């Protein structure tokens, strides 16, 4: 975790030595679970081979016993060390038995059992996350369980819709509860540590896969069929961008939040074509919707690097924004788009030159300035009247070279990279 | 919710109930914050027999609450007023009503029990002396705090920079943390950088030696963006201590820089902050009571304390200020309770007639008005205890009313009950602190060369000091005694608030439903130096500071004089020694606590888990 007092090497070694017998014990238990799995497989093999009723009864009994043993053991272990993937896999295998659609008569009972098992799995995964909120395995298990449930709902509704319509879906309201609970849990986790990228990833999973198609906050899409897909999509995108913005305003050194914003920003590409068509026909100089959004975003990120030029996350997002500009103008080349692009490059160059002057020892503004000079030189070469602007182009490329040479001194760790860039520029 | 603790006695002259003993180690007269701190510490930590008495029928005195005011027929509700004990003893010099209530049927009359109006409202910071004492003394059992949501500095709009009317105020958010700087639209990019640099340096000084990994420039392992790393300095990192303490010595060329004021220091090179930002930092972060407050000493110490306090309790509470629920009077009471719980005898309505130091018997005799004679080895005297005859005390141990009269300055306070937030109703923040520097007040009615700042603290329902849809505003400002009390806040009351309820047109200004103002003597810093004897301490009333810091400091050095080692008895270094030593931390006892690292190599189980797994 961030900002904690660091442990000394001596005390760390001592702690390790002290915990050694316990580690040994855990490893032993881990082995046992692997064997348990093998035994289970053997049972199955036998089961497939032959089977009269007595044997069957006996088998289910031992199986039940094995299963409960496996469940207790794995739960205990993942609560202590949630990265023990064997335990999670064992649990996944068991979950699969319940999630398959069997097309039997007592479907209700089956669904009830599935719900209980799902609740159990989510609970165990939550216990794992309590121990380590950044456990890959525990997060993946959670994601996997929800995805399976979701698949099950999709398959059962498609297979049974012809016969019984929607009435069988006791799973749907259950799913809705689960998703709402997931969102609550995410809220708590992200409030506790807003840089937990696992939680951010999972949030996107919950929002994209489920919320967007099935439930949107209070509104149940199942009941309001008339709401169009893109309306829901837009609403979700706005909500998520706003959420990321809130987190950024609390602490902008947050790659995850900037990334989250970029993910829900990217989709503006979709309507940029429509937007540009309307403005080009009206030939007005006012910025298109996309341009306005992009400008506001540049402004926001500049506030971050003016406050703290040493912080990388803002620069990374700035770089991503510049790349968006490229994608924007290349999607359908037009003179107004190119003009906007060059104009933006120029504006950003002026802005960051100011940062660079204030913080001459900071590498980030120097690096971004060098890139912008390079980009401007490149863009102008592509322009029709580039001969007229030859001196400007030359000026930009000379400036870029100067800056890269300065970076060799400022950031000696990456001088190989800067040399390479310089060589390519020749 | 006016606190009126009644111990069952009706007449103040009635003899006190018999105490189990008449000889005590310590007798404390008065229940103000400093007095209760000493009483609780002596009882809980010093294991001494303590008697805590107050002449009045309520706790706190100048750290307590206002009392309900009644008309002549004793039934008409007239708002609140300064307790009689304070005016009688000279702790309050004069009062002046701002808005009075005549209608007994009004809203406030019916809701009056829901108010808790402090005489001198103060708050604490997350990492200041008071919080330390609260945590270590277990007084936290009786207290709750909420954060101060936001700080503002006022800017006069008469300069035409903004489109407000002449003489009106604009509330500018104070950028004290990185997030606040980032969000502040008013700061120019250059200034953002400048302020950030300044705070970084201060943060470096603040965190030096705390063991927090705050990520120096050369520490490649500090996680990027970890709290503290935003303040990382690289090669230009300065030596600790040169930042504030020696800045005068460094520029020895100019002799005046040693006496630089906080504000001037911020505006000068290399900080080069604008006037508004300098005001914001000087008055809302360092809490300088005047524009001319010196950089050295208290002001820079408060700045460091403030920076340490921000985010102390996790990312969800980035603010530094903590408001005690039910008013700051609760704090003094909580320490009285700590004293009582650890064995001190506490009683109200115990007026004292005479105290006499008997050098021959090396104890002090206390004679109550009820005619009881008590003795003690150490005596602590608070304010507003009535006229007490003092025998055997040196002149400088007695702060006579005359001495108070001679002081050039005084503290002015005003308390208002309003119907809406002064920082705009659309703002979500209601628990706010506002500094109104003199530069923002061209319309004030008097001239002064001292340039004192007016501090305003606004509380809402969530602070449990007032009912829903009402707000309490505490104003506090030092001034010369020659300035009439009614002139001190006149322009602020006119510009920020309106006194009459306008029914017709919708006004944006909050209406004052009730308000009063009063003046108390200035509590000089040099009183601290009068702690010379090791058997007697006299505390003044509440000071002009908006935090409890100075009062706790005073209590600490008094405690040092009374109970400290003889060698250091006269020194003032005690103010850093807490009254309550740090309790052993839970973490230290639980070394067996399990920890899991990502690589799964070291796993610590607690004994329960270990046993459980062994059994499986």
UniProtKB/TrEMBL annotation, chain A:
<feature type="region of interest" description="Disordered">
    <location>
        <begin position="34"/>
        <end position="61"/>
    </location>
</feature>
<feature type="compositionally biased region" description="Basic and acidic residues">
    <location>
        <begin position="1"/>
        <end position="17"/>
    </location>
</feature>
<feature type="region of interest" description="Disordered">
    <location>
        <begin position="1"/>
        <end position="21"/>
    </location>
</feature>
<dbReference type="GO" id="GO:0004663">
    <property type="term" value="F:Rab geranylgeranyltransferase activity"/>
</dbReference>
<dbReference type="InterPro" id="IPR002088">
    <property type="entry name" value="Prenyl_trans_a"/>
</dbReference>
<dbReference type="GO" id="GO:0005968">
    <property type="term" value="C:Rab-protein geranylgeranyltransferase complex"/>
</dbReference>
<protein>
    <recommendedName>
        <fullName>Geranylgeranyl transferase type-2 subunit alpha</fullName>
        <ecNumber>2.5.1.60</ecNumber>
    </recommendedName>
</protein>
<keyword id="KW-0677">Repeat</keyword>
<comment type="function">
    <text>Catalyzes the transfer of a geranyl-geranyl moiety from geranyl-geranyl pyrophosphate to cysteines occuring in specific C-terminal amino acid sequences.</text>
</comment>
<comment type="similarity">
    <text>Belongs to the protein prenyltransferase subunit alpha family.</text>
</comment>
<keyword id="KW-0808">Transferase</keyword>
<keyword id="KW-0637">Prenyltransferase</keyword>
<dbReference type="Pfam" id="PF01239">
    <property type="entry name" value="PPTA"/>
</dbReference>
<dbReference type="GO" id="GO:0097354">
    <property type="term" value="P:prenylation"/>
</dbReference>
UniProtKB/TrEMBL annotation, chain B:
<feature type="domain" description="RAE1/2">
    <location>
        <begin position="411"/>
        <end position="525"/>
    </location>
</feature>
<feature type="region of interest" description="Disordered">
    <location>
        <begin position="580"/>
        <end position="604"/>
    </location>
</feature>
<feature type="compositionally biased region" description="Acidic residues">
    <location>
        <begin position="590"/>
        <end position="604"/>
    </location>
</feature>
<dbReference type="GO" id="GO:0005092">
    <property type="term" value="F:GDP-dissociation inhibitor activity"/>
</dbReference>
<dbReference type="Pfam" id="PF22603">
    <property type="entry name" value="RAE1_2_domI_C"/>
</dbReference>
<dbReference type="Pfam" id="PF00996">
    <property type="entry name" value="GDI"/>
</dbReference>
<protein>
    <recommendedName>
        <fullName>RAE1/2 domain-containing protein</fullName>
    </recommendedName>
</protein>
<dbReference type="GO" id="GO:0005634">
    <property type="term" value="C:nucleus"/>
</dbReference>
<comment type="similarity">
    <text>Belongs to the Rab GDI family.</text>
</comment>
<dbReference type="GO" id="GO:0007264">
    <property type="term" value="P:small GTPase-mediated signal transduction"/>
</dbReference>
<dbReference type="GO" id="GO:0005829">
    <property type="term" value="C:cytosol"/>
</dbReference>
<dbReference type="InterPro" id="IPR036188">
    <property type="entry name" value="FAD/NAD-bd_sf"/>
</dbReference>
<dbReference type="GO" id="GO:0005968">
    <property type="term" value="C:Rab-protein geranylgeranyltransferase complex"/>
</dbReference>
<dbReference type="InterPro" id="IPR018203">
    <property type="entry name" value="GDP_dissociation_inhibitor"/>
</dbReference>
<dbReference type="InterPro" id="IPR054420">
    <property type="entry name" value="RAE1_2_domI_C"/>
</dbReference>
<dbReference type="GO" id="GO:0016192">
    <property type="term" value="P:vesicle-mediated transport"/>
</dbReference>
């Amino acid at each position: 975790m961030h900002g904690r007092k660091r442990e000394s090497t001596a005390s760390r070694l001592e702690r390790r030595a002290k915990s050694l017998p316990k580690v040994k014990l855990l490893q032993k238990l881990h082995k046992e679970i692997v064997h348990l799995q093998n035994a289970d497989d053997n049972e199955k093999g036998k089961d497939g081979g032959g089977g009269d009723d007595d044997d069957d009864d006996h088998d289910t009994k031992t199986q039940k016993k094995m299963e409960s043993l496996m469940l207790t053991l794995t739960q205990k272990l993942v609560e202590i060390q949630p990265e023990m993937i064997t335990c999670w896999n064992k649990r996944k295998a068991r979950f699969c038995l319940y999630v398959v659609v069997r097309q039997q008569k007592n479907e209700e009972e089956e669904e009830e059992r599935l719900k209980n098992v799902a609740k159990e799995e989510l609970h165990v995964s939550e216990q794992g996350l309590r121990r380590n909120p950044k456990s890959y395995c525990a997060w993946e298990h959670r994601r996997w369980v929800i995805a399976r449930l979701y698949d099950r709902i999709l398959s059962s509704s498609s297979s049974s819709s012809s016969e019984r319509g929607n009435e069988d879906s006791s799973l749907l309201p259950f799913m809705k509860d689960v998703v709402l609970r997931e969102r609550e849990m995410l809220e708590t986790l992200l409030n506790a540590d807003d840089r937990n990228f696992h939680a951010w990833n999972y949030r996107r999973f919950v929002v994209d896969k489920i919320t967007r198609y099935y439930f949107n906050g209070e509104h149940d899409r199942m009941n309001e069929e008339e709401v169009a897909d893109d309306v829901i999509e837009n609403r979700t995108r706005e909500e998520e961008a706003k959420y990321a913005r809130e987190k950024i305003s609390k602490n902008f050194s947050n790659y995850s939040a900037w990334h989250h914003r970029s993910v829900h920003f990217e989709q503006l590409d979709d309507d940029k074509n429509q937007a540009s068509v309307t403005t080009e026909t009206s030939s007005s100089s006012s910025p298109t919707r996309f341009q306005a959004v992009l400008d506001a975003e540049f402004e926001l990120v500049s506030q971050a690097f003016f406050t703290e030029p040493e912080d990388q996350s803002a620069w990374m997002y700035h770089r991503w924004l510049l790349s968006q500009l490229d994608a924007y103008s290349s999607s359908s080349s037009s003179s107004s788009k190119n003009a906007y692009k060059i104009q933006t490059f120029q504006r950003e160059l002026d802005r960051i030159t100011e940062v660079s002057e204030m913080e001459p020892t900071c590498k980030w503004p120097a690096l971004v300035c060098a890139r912008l000079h390079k980009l401007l030189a490149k863009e102008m070469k592509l322009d029709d009247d580039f001969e007229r602007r030859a001196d400007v182009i030359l000026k930009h490329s000379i400036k870029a070279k100067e800056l890269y040479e300065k970076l060799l001194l400022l950031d000696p760790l990456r001088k190989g990279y800067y040399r390479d860039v310089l060589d390519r520029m020749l | 919710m006016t606190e009126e603790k009644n111990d069952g006695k009706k007449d103040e002259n009635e003899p006190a109930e018999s105490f189990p003993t008449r000889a005590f180690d310590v007798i404390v007269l008065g229940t103000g914050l400093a007095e209760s701190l000493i009483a609780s510490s002596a009882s809980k930590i010093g294991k001494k027999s303590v008697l805590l008495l107050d002449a009045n029928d309520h706790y706190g005195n100048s750290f307590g609450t206002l009392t309900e005011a009644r008309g002549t027929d004793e039934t008409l509700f007239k708002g609140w007023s300064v307790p009689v004990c304070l005016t009688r003893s000279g702790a309050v010099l004069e009062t002046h009503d701002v808005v009075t209530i005549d209608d007994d049927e009004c809203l406030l009359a019916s809701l009056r029990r829901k108010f808790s109006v402090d005489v001198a409202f103060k708050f604490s910071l997350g990492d200041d002396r008071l919080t330390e004492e609260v945590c270590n003394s277990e007084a936290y059992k009786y207290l709750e705090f909420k954060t101060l949501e936001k700080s503002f500095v006022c800017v006069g709009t008469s300069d035409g920079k903004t489109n407000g009317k002449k003489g009106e105020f604009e509330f500018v958010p104070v950028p004290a943390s990185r997030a606040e700087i980032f969000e502040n639209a008013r700061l120019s990019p250059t200034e953002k950088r400048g302020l950030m640099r300044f705070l970084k340096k201060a943060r470096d000084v603040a965190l030096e030696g705390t063991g927090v990994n705050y990520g120096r420039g050369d520490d490649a392992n500090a996680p990027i963006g970890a709290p503290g790393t935003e303040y990382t300095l690289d090669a230009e990192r300065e030596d600790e201590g040169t930042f504030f303490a020696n800045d005068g010595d460094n520029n020895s060329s100019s002799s005046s820089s040693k006496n630089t004021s906080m504000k001037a220091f911020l505006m000068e090179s290399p900080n080069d902050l604008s006037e508004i930002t300098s005001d914001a930092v000087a008055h809302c972060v360092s809490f300088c009571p005047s524009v001319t407050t010196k950089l050295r000493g208290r002001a820079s110490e408060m700045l460091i304390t403030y920076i340490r306090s921000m985010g102390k309790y996790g990312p969800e509470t980035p603010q530094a200020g903590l408001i005690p629920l039910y008013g700051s009077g609760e704090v003094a009471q909580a320490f009285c309770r700590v004293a009582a719980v650890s064995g001190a005898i506490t009683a109200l309505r115990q007026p004292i007639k005479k105290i006499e130091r008997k050098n021959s018997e090396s104890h002090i005799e206390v004679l109550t008005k009820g005619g009881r004679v008590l003795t003690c080895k150490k005596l602590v005297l608070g304010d507003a205890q009535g006229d007490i005859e003092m025998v055997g005390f040196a002149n400088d141990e007695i702060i006579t009313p005359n001495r108070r009269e001679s002081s050039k300055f005084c503290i002015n306070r005003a308390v208002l009950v309003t119907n809406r937030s002064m920082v705009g109703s659309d703002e979500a923040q209601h628990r706010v602190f506002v500094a109104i520097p003199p530069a923002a007040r061209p319309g004030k009615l008097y001239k002064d060369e001292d340039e004192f700042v007016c501090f305003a603290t606004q509380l809402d329902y969530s602070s449990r000091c007032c009912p829903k849809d009402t707000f309490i505003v505490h104003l506090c400002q030092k001034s010369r005694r020659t300035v009439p009390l009614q002139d001190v806040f006149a322009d602020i009351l006119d510009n920020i608030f309106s006194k009459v309820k306008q029914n017709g047109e919708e006004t944006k200004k909050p209406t004052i439903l009730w308000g009063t103002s009063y003046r108390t003597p200035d509590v000089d810093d040099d009183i601290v130096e009068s702690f010379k004897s090791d058997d007697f301490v006299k505390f003044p009333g509440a000071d002009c500071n908006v935090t409890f810091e100075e009062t706790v400091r005073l209590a600490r050095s008094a405690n040092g004089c009374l109970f400290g080692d003889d060698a250091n008895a006269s020194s003032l270094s005690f103010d850093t020694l807490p009254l309550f030593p740090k309790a052993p931390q839970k973490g230290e006892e639980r070394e067996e606590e399990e920890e899991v690292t990502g690589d799964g190599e070291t796993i610590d189980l607690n004994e329960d888990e270990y046993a459980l797994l062994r059994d499986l």
